[in-house]
Amino acid sequence: MEIAQEQYEKIADCFPRQRGNVNFQNLVVLNAILYVAEHGCKWRGLPKSFGNWHSIYTRMNRWSKKGVLDRIFMRLQQEQMIRIKIEAVSLDSTIIKIHPVGTGALTKLDHSRLVNPGAGGQQSFIWLPRMLNAQ
Hints:
By secondary structure, the chain is mainly α. The chain has a domain at about 5-80. It is about 40% helix and about 0% strand. The protein contains five helices and no strands. The chain has helices at about 5-10, 25-40, 55-65, 70-80, 110-115. Helix 2 (about 25-40) packs across helix 3. The chain is elongated and about 110 Å long.
């Protein structure tokens, strides 16, 4: 997706007026935004032919907050220059540490009691001898 100069002139009234010393024309910024939207790359991955990625991102961010991008994309679709639907998806990978006992993990046995039952602590059972068939 790339907008040509003739196509840009049809939608030029949607853009804010450029004032002062501007490094990038609105057409270059729009084409950079379309490139990122089409390829799904990060802003840092923008080709050098578009210029400094941070400057383009800053202008795009300003346009987004002021509603300029909404007007531009609506007009592009009305003029049938592009057909695009941009959706944002956010995934969260929050991690909460849980003690192994809380997950149902098996606990370690105290082997010192099994080897030497007389070693400290209470006994876990009582031995009661019984006589079988006592007469």
